[in-house]
Specification:
The chain is α/β, with parallel strands linked by helices. The protein has 2 domains: about 5-105 and about 220-240, 3-Layer(aba) Sandwich (Rossmann fold), CATH 3.40.50.12500; about 105-220, 3-Layer(aba) Sandwich (Rossmann fold). The protein has helices at about 20-25, 45-50, 50-65, 75-80, 85-95, 105-115, 130-140, 165-170, 175-185, 205-215, 220-230, 245-250; strands spanning about 5-10, 30-35, 70, 100, 120-125, 145, 195, 215-220. Strands 2-1-3-4 form a 4-stranded parallel sheet, with helices on both faces. A 4-stranded parallel sheet has the order 6-5-7-8, sandwiched between helices. Strand 7, helix 10 (about 205-215) and strand 8 form a beta-alpha-beta unit. The longest helix has 15 residues, at about 85-95. The radius of gyration is 17 Å and the shape is globular.
């Protein structure tokens, strides 16, 4: 019997399988994951602006196949518009389809709050516009964000990204580890955690190593979305390989 605990509809930004694999391999017994994608091929403003209508269409399809909740990934579209827009659009979509919706960016801030984080190092593959937007988001929750500077592969930048999605396919978790460790250690005074945005790189294998080696907390974007979805479903997924957030599964704080 499939989905006797929950059927989760995932809407991912690109065709890449990394984000789906992250959910598949950690799905607990009785949970079915239904994958879909928007199909971003570029990292420019117009591409992100066009995402919202497409997401609404896909969400309606996911309801039709019996999903109990919709979880969204891909923060740039809402980063360009801000927290107030994200909340209004998410709530409107939820009312339209009659299902709870986990939106792209607010769960990340809530995850940091749940772990008691006040100052956080921000790891991305974004340029200044998106990185500064993340800082503003976290500021709305009383969290100070300090940007490491987007991971950059020489000659592989694209529009709003310091490293294109295609080039990120060649970035290993070892490089993610080195980038995060160097950025974390360069920030003085010490921050409370590392926040890793973006599902386009192979970050998960580096998370537990960073927590152990640096004695800090690491919140990965996809882990925060997963945590928020399972919290909403009242399911404890018992995930021990992707940082303290999913190991301890703290309650979502009220805001």
């Amino acid at each position: 019997m499939y989905a006797w605990r929950a059927r989760i509809g995932l809407i991912k930004p690109t065709h890449r399988g990394k984000g789906f694999h992250f959910w598949y391999t950690r799905a607990p017994e009785g949970v079915e994951i239904v994958p879909t994608f928007v199909g971003f091929r570029r990292s420019n403003r117009q591409t992100f602006e066009n995402a919202f209508e497409r997401i609404e269409q896909i969400a309606d399809d996911l309801k039709a196949v019996g999903c109990h909740i919709i979880s969204l990934s891909g923060t740039p579209p809402v980063l360009l518009k801000g927290l107030d827009f994200e909340r209004e659009w998410r709530d409107r979509l939820s009312q339209k389809i009659g299902l709870p919706v986990v939106s792209q960016m607010e769960p990340h801030a809530l995850a940091l709050l749940a772990l008691g984080v006040k100052r956080v190092a921000i790891a991305t593959y974004y340029g200044d516009e998106l990185n500064n937007a993340i800082k503003r988001y976290f500021g709305r929750f009383g969290i100070e964000g300090l940007v490491m500077g987007g991971l950059s592969v020489p000659g592989k930048s694209e529009a709003l990204y310091t490293t294109s999605l295609m080039a990120l396919d060649e970035v290993s978790h070892m490089q993610v580890y080195q980038y995060c460790k160097a950025g974390f250690q360069a920030i003085k005074p010490r921050v409370d955690a590392i926040y890793i945005n973006g599902g386009g790189w192979d970050a998960p294998p580096a998370i537990d190593m960073l927590e152990r080696d640096l004695g800090t907390k690491v919140v990965f974007a996809l882990a925060a979305e997963m945590w928020a979805a399972y919290q909403r479903l009242a399911i404890d997924p018992v995930i021990g390989d992707c940082g303290v957030l999913l190991r301890d599964n703290p309650a979502v704080p009220s805001t």
